[in-house]
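HUMAN: Now follow token order:
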Amino acid sequence: MEDRKSILNRMYIAAIPFFLMAVFVLIKLFIIQYAEGPDLRARSQKEVIREINIQADRGNIFSSDGKLLATSMPVYDLFMDPYTVAEEDFTANISALSLELGKKFPVRSARQWETYLRMKRDAKSRYVRLGEDISFSDLQKIREFPIFNLGRYKGGLIYEQKNYRKMPLGKIAERTIGYDHLRGRTGIEGAFSSFLSGTDGVRLKQKVSKGNWKPVTDSYEIEPEDGLDVVTTIDTKIQDIVHHELLKALERFEADHGCAVVMDVKTGAIRGIANLGRTEEGTYFEKRNYAVWESTEPGSTFKLASVMIALEDGIADTNTLVDTENGLYEIYGKKIKDSNYRNGKGGYGRVTLKRAFEVSSNVGIVKLIYDNYKDEPSRFVDRLYTLGLHDPLGLAIKGEGTPLIPKPGDKNWSGITLPWMAFGYQVSFTPLQVLTLYNAVANDGTMIKPRFIESISKHGKVIQNNEVQVINPSICSKETLAKVRSMLDGVVENGTATNLQSPLVKIAGKTGTCQLNYWKRDTRDYQASFAGYFPADNPQYTCIVVVNKPNNHMGYYGSTVAGPVFKAIAENIYLDTPRDLDQPVQGFAELLGTDASNDITVTQKKVPNLKGKSGSDALSILENHGYKVKIKGNGKVIWQYPPAGSDVGNSALIELKLG
């Protein structure tokens, strides 16, 4: 039998592992408590309370006349923590709360809301969704509901702010304003996102259940800094005119798509831009920014560059004779036709270069360019580069189409390239690039970059201006400039665009009719365009209108499809713009004495009765007698101020409303 000592020794030996384990546990507890403890506690706390980024309010986008084009509107998602509400408060007020929720959120009746919230409370749910995208004014009303009026924490109401982008003008200029989200960045929103975005803030939130978080306090740890505001060059009145006049033409001619742009001559500021594409249902919306993106063969509007080069090189003058023959010219088996060519007959015979330009003779312009540059085509191409037409405009808005000007030696250069370039084929430009050339002519030869932005501001204070940028200080000599401007005048006075003559404002410009996909058989799709400026004698605005694929049974020429849009835009802008009219617009004087309805005699002191007169008649009468006039609307005079018979000086301002 073992003695007592042996038994004790064996017990001690058996206890050693337990002792060592106890020591290990004590050491581990010490390490956890004092060495790893702070880090573990911090990690545990982080799992319960976390810093959450709070998105800054995005800056606003304004028009040049102070209207909101895009703004961030705060909306709220609402939740309830029913478990945090005291038992007596919940029991006493849940029916009343459910009644209000049933009115505000009728997805459930009052009885269903009460049953639902009781069930969620019993399940200890901490984050019950009530509604989403709630306005601030509605949130204020909801905070006064029973239970919720006990306060944010006692009442269990949880609300989270988010922002959505709203365009107060609706779809007008939507593609130019653009967007900035997961799908990408377009327009002004995308180009100036770094200014608009602001800096996010930080807020402490507590994890309550199933990945849901609620704010710990009402304040931010780091306040979000709102984005800067962007002031665009868009004038909302001009924008509205451009949009609706283009839309009317697209609907009338059942066109596939089109665009129209109005630019300030001196500054390059885009005052109005519309881009409309046709849906399958036959309606139109801002589908793509065609004015910036779509690069196509421009057709006859490009003849401006061709004649400018010929004049500048001295190979021709406006009175140089060109033989348009019968309207048909053949080069390397390819036929070039004038628009009046039919069954072997057409053309304009021997005419001056100015006349060939006015009637848009393809044969006349091609023969002039081809005969003088065929042996050295690079001279002609180099001149196009000198004008500054070969480079993109470098717009801040993404997606600008790249100009195409072929050069001798390119793989696609052939014997017909030069003559086809002369009348606007085998070259490619966007509408805005073509407009930039016409704007340079209107701007005394200085080519400037189109601008969409006036300034960047913060709380109404300008912190950065967008200055005018010159692309080419002089596209040609003053002599050449005067000649091409005379030719552009002639297009409207005596040429293809006589239908655009207006008693209100003198227009200068060039028609364009380009056949699309002309290399395909049985394809008769066209692009109609008109580019120019107004008033012709003192240009304030340039404008281009492009209509793609109109129903050719209804019309497809630039003069009949695009030109009238240009005229309507010019007249409406002119009517809506206050001006000093000491000098009558050319053409008004002819109206007096030629219209039997003009039976009003204007005296030095008495304002005549103009009610019932057409706007053009009333305007001509008043302006030709020295009055200054402000007109709104279209049609006939329905209101005037001062009233008829008022004693005023003959230089007074007369306001008219038409309807």
Observations:
- The chain has 20 helices and 27 strands.
- Confidence is low (pLDDT under 50) at residues 578-604.
- The longest helix spans residues 4-35.
